């Protein structure tokens, strides 16, 4: 959890919806950087055989350029996926072209099962400490919301076609260190509100 989030108790979860124009510009920039970096890596890979013939110095330079391009492409891809996960919480972005694939993946059985398992692990009365877990759940809040977490897990497994927005909200609740499950500076009511919103969107969908 960043120091900024720890010192701003007025911030709520989820945060305010971002501006659509700014969102589209950010996604376009990440797409462009990812494509350009991937193209650079492919070109450098194609030059490697020639570098072996030319000179060892060329080989080192081209290999370093290729590795750097791959790292940059992966970083842009991960940043883009993280941004899409956050945007999927907001219904107004449902028709954003970049979100279409993300919304389909959220509805997959495997993803829903993984999130349901995550909800049950979070609701477990005795949670063993996890290595490298720098942001443990707030046990008092989990205890107060245990029944809601378990009910939501069951509904998520049984629903055939859940609302992707609500599935995204569950994902953010479990994985975002700034969510009310982990951040003591957010009011406990935020957790109840998020669980209620997620359950309402899932319970109103067809059951498998």
How does the overall form come out from the CA principal axes? elongated
Question: How many runs of DSSP E, i.e. beta strands?
Answer: 0
Helicity, as a percent range: 55-70%
**What pattern of helices and strands is seen along the backbone?**
HHHHHHHHH
Count of distinct structural domains: 2
How would you sum up the major sheet? none
Low-confidence stretches: 1-10
Amino- and carboxy-terminal Cα gap: 37 Å
Radius of gyration: 21 Å
Number of helices: 9
Question: What integer is the average pLDDT?
Answer: 79
**Which structural class should the secondary elements be placed in?**
mainly alpha
Work out the strand percent: under 5%
Model description:
With about 210 residues, this protein is mainly α. The protein has two domains: about 20-90; about 100-205, no CATH class. It contains nine helices and no strands. Helix 2 packs antiparallel against helix 3 and helix 5 (about 110-125) runs antiparallel to helix 7 (about 145-160). The radius of gyration is 21 Å and the shape is elongated. The chain starts with a helix and ends in a 5-residue tail after the last helix.
């Amino acid at each position: 959890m960043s120091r900024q989030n720890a010192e701003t108790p007025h911030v709520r979860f989820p945060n305010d919806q971002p501006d659509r124009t700014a969102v589209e510009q950010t996604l376009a920039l990440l797409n462009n950087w990812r494509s350009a970096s991937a193209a650079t890596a492919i070109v450098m890979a194609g030059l490697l055989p020639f570098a072996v013939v030319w000179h060892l110095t060329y080989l080192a330079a081209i290999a370093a350029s290729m590795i750097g391009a791959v790292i940059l492409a992966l970083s842009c891809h991960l940043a883009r996926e993280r941004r899409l996960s956050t945007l999927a919480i907001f219904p107004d972005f449902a028709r954003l072209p970049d979100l279409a694939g993300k919304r389909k993946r959220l509805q997959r059985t495997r993803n829903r099962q993984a999130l349901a398992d995550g909800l049950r692990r979070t609701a477990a009365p005795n949670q063993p400490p996890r290595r490298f877990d720098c942001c443990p759940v707030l046990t008092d809040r989990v205890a107060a919301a245990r029944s809601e977490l378990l009910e939501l897990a069951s509904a998520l497994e049984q629903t055939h076609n859940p609302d992707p927005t609500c599935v995204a909200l569950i994902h953010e609740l479990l994985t975002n260190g700034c969510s009310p499950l982990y951040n003591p500076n957010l009011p406990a009511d935020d957790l109840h509100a998020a669980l209620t919103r997620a359950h309402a969107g899932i319970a109103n969908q067809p059951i498998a």
